[in-house]
Amino acid sequence: MKDYILIKKKTAFGCSMAAITLMTAAVVLMFRHPSETRHKPAIVETMSYNILKANGKSILFFRDITKDSILRDADIKPDNIRYGSKITVSEKDLHSIVKRYKAFLKDRQIELTEKEAEMDYFIKRHNVRDEGFDMIAKHYDKLSEESIAVGKIINTLSVITDSTRLEISRKVSYEDTGRKPYSGIFVETDGGIWRYGTWLRTKREGKGISHDGKGNLICGTWNADTIVEGRRTDGKGTYHGHFNKEKEAEGHGSFAAADGTYYEGRWVGGLRNGFGFELGRSHMKAGEWMNGVYKGERISYTSERIYGIDISRYQHGKGRKYYPIYWNRLRITDLGRLSKKNVSGVVNYPVSFVYIKSTEGISIRNRYYAADYKQARKHGFHCGAYHFFSTKTSATAQARYFIRNSFFKKGDLPPVLDVEPTHKQIVKMGGETALFNAIRTWMRIVRQHTGVKPVLYVSQNFVNKYLNAAPDIKKDYNIWIARYGEYKPDIKLIYWQLSPDGRVNGIHGDVDINVFNGYEDSFDSFIKTERIK
Annotated active-site positions, please? Predict the structure, then answer.
């Protein structure tokens, strides 16, 4: 390794010989083949790894020890370890390293569990027809495999106690290459390349080391003088994927940030552009990115999705003008025109669920609620009632008023609390704390009466400004969001009200159109577990 390349002059990197040696080491780590030297030796090291032994028994294999004093690339089998550094450490220090590694693994196991839960939610709400599903499912499988591997290592290390005798040995394999050809690894300099200690003005071809316009090291593979695929590391993390001629991330690629966040998807000019997903420790964003900014998931509307409506007295007209609802004709014929929508085919969708406004505050009732409820049930619709929350009256009184004036029969959908206060109304009632305490009160009383968790209906603006102040509500209750934009809300939700101006055959005027967050299997599961028993 140390006699791989000798360069005395300064290069385009502005690097000394020591810096070039460091870059060479980086590319060796990437390609896992430390044997390619300018002298092309006949006998080369093809594989090496370190072995952790407990009381003389080999229990774990690893590459080396990190600067944080934990084992790197450890496994219960040595098959995937290509090159391991020679390690000298005392038994006392080795015990400390193992203890630190155990703590690291336990934290990693918790992190993997949280990330798997985020991805599991996405997978359950999507299917193979959705953009990016296969890519996300593949990464989910990768995390699951790592979780299993971490569990096995934790179990293996559990046999080690303070009295266990620990030691490290090293296994090295060699191969006689004879006259086998070597392509070599080049280092780009001054408009040419260094290969086998020789500076050549030639096109870049094969595996090599270069740098981008900001001086970040790139280890990659070139074809016809253009980098095809590689790995670039900077202060923020490591990118692995395709590049353009300017050595910027372009095409498909992944980025592993220093804080553990992972992104995979499309890039243009070094920025996230197109579909991709970002996975943090406890949140995943999947959807469209534009110039590095996450916009949201743009879903495709097809007949496979589950659509529903919510209605009030306004669907029957205003003033003295009355319009009946023809329940036997209900079909969604327009998803609204306030935002762009990716519609596949003609909009002619069945109505799968109906929510009907029942009450508001402690004195307002929808005079058409009872009749609409009975007709919806008669025609086989899954239906439920909702209450419009008032900031002026007691949450307890509102809950009891809703219960007195609404139906909660077996098979009905969970009741809904519609919360749409202005900022001034929130301030006037005592602020966010007072508001969320009132919401908790209403939810608790209605849940006790119906036996099911109510759903919280809020706007996207409410989510952005206030909902993070009540993580228990966000976690414990299903959320229904009104967002009249092109992209689906970036939050776990059960329903998305995507437009207030849809059209439904059998109903006069505009109708609120909603889509269930998931497909038929998820909806069936929701109906079985969340409806009133």
Answer: 420
